[in-house]
Design a protein that fits this description.
With 390 residues, the protein is α/β, with parallel strands linked by helices. It folds into two domains: 142 residues, Aspartate Aminotransferase, domain 1 (Alpha-Beta Complex), CATH 3.90.1150; 241 residues, 3-Layer(aba) Sandwich (Aspartate Aminotransferase, domain 2). Helices cover 35% and strands 19% of the residues. It is built from 13 helices and 17 strands. The strands form four sheets. The protein has a seven-stranded mixed beta sheet with strand order 4-12-11-10-7-5-6, with helices on both faces. Strands 1-2-3-15 form a four-stranded mixed beta sheet. Strands 13-14-17-16 form a four-stranded antiparallel beta sheet, covered by helices on one side. Helix 6 links the parallel strand 5 and strand 6. Helix 4 runs parallel beside helix 10 and helix 11 runs parallel beside helix 13. It is globular. The relative contact order is 0.16. The model has no long low-confidence stretch (mean pLDDT 96).
């Protein structure tokens, strides 16, 4: 058997070509560090686009997956399973009592697809109100909610109407929601849209307006959930409870998972067979989800996220550079908006300082480190950002 050594060349040869590839091959991770095929160590502030909240190769998740893989990996939802039931119980333990019906799936965009369909069936309406700069996935239903034209326009028209309003604009929200609206669909913090937190006034108004006008409030917690913003869920900052909530990313501790959580009233409007999934709710992912939730509860990582995130954002704000427009975020979901393109600085952080970051739009450097990251690592990140901006 031939030994493969040039992993980068092989991946680029056979990849679909839709991604702009880095010139490294990452082969191992532990906590907030990853290593490439040459043995170079990096501080990871990409965190799998917000998946690795609990750290790479989290011991709770690794042990749970090992054990479950030896027991049972796949079982469709028509056949009840002990690990699926345990996941539901664990999830209910960190959600408000009214969000007590779950559709498990494999990803965030699948969770949003489910939310769209459940909302349509619950209201018999097909109009949705979403936010400019919002991002909800790339499958054909969810992409209609994603504001960026390059994601959305080549694939329309869609079977449902989406009206986009400026984020945090109460007047636009009141004007857009009417008797034909199925749901208002919002992120507590816009991730892809530039790390832009919602105001409490905006989310609270969305809750009030949807209740007054007989439609639903859907909150996309795919990137903001599992402790990322300094609370277990982003909506906890605002004192509201949505009718549906979508979660994924960190919920499985690194294993692909998604869920649409909803009220019993919403769930009851979907007919038998109205939606489905083959792999969703599989015992392997459910075991990972249980372990991830237990680790989060045992360590209270959301408190660490709040403390370190507040300190980190403040330190970034202290950097004196005419290139910086604003630093914003919640918890360890932080964005530094520049007055110019962010890509060259993201590249320099990787090449010169071995720190991995990602973009959020053309001018924002986004930081999504694992919540287990040490303060000393974040100090290194601040110093590196200061140096590359200089």
């Amino acid at each position: 058997m031939q030994t493969i050594t040039n992993w980068l060349e092989l991946e680029k040869t056979h990849d679909s070509g839709i991604y702009t590839k880095h010139e490294v091959v990452i082969v191992r991770g532990k906590g907030a560090r990853v290593w490439d095929s040459q043995g170079t160590e990096y501080i990871d502030c990409v965190g799998g686009y917000g998946v690795a909240n609990l750290g790479h190769s989290n011991p709770y998740v690794v042990e749970a997956v090992k054990k479950q893989a030896e027991t049972l990996m796949i079982m469709p939802q028509t056949l009840p399973n002990d690990k699926r039931a345990e996941f539901y119980a664990a999830l209910q333990g960190i959600l408000p009592p009214t969000l007590n019906r779950y559709f498990p799936c494999n990803s965030g965009t699948e969770a949003n697809e489910a939310a769209l369909k459940f909302a349509m069936m619950a209201t018999s309406k097909r109009k949705f109100v979403a936010a400019m700069r919002g991002f909800s996935g790339r499958t054909l239903g969810a992409v209609a909610l994603s504001y960026e034209a390059k994601y959305r326009e080549p694939f329309g028209p869609y079977g449902h109407q989406v009206v986009f309003i400026p984020y945090n604009n109460l007047e636009a929200l009141r004007e857009a929601v009417d008797d034909t609206t199925a749901a208002v669909f919002l992120e507590p913090v816009q991730g892809e849209g530039g790390v832009r937190p919602a105001t409490g006034e905006f989310i609270q108004a969305a809750r009030q307006i949807t209740q007054e006008r007989g439609c639903l409030l859907i909150l996309d917690e795919i990137q903001t959930g599992m402790g990322r913003t300094g609370k277990i869920w982003g909506f906890e900052h605002f004192g509201v409870v949505p009718d549906l909530m979508t979660a994924a990313k960190a919920l499985g501790g690194g294993v692909p998972i998604g869920v649409c959580a909803m009220t019993a009233e919403v769930a009851g409007k979907m007919p038998k067979g109205g939606h489905g999934t083959t792999f969703g709710g599989n015992p392997l992912a459910m075991a990972a989800g249980v372990a991830a939730i237990r680790y989060l509860e045992d360590t209270k990582l959301w408190e660490r996220s709040a403390e370190l995130g507040g300190w980190f954002a403040q330190e970034l704000r202290k950097i004196e550079s005419p290139k910086v427009r604003e630093v914003r975020g919640m918890g360890l979901m932080v964005g530094m908006e520049l007055k110019e393109k962010s890509a060259p600085y993201i590249t320099k952080l990787e090449h010169d300082h071995h720190i991995l970051t990602l973009a959020a739009g053309p001018t924002v450097i986004r930081f999504l480190p694992p919540l287990v990251i040490e303060k000393s690592d974040l100090e290194r990140v601040v110093g590196a950002v200061r140096e590359v901006l200089a």
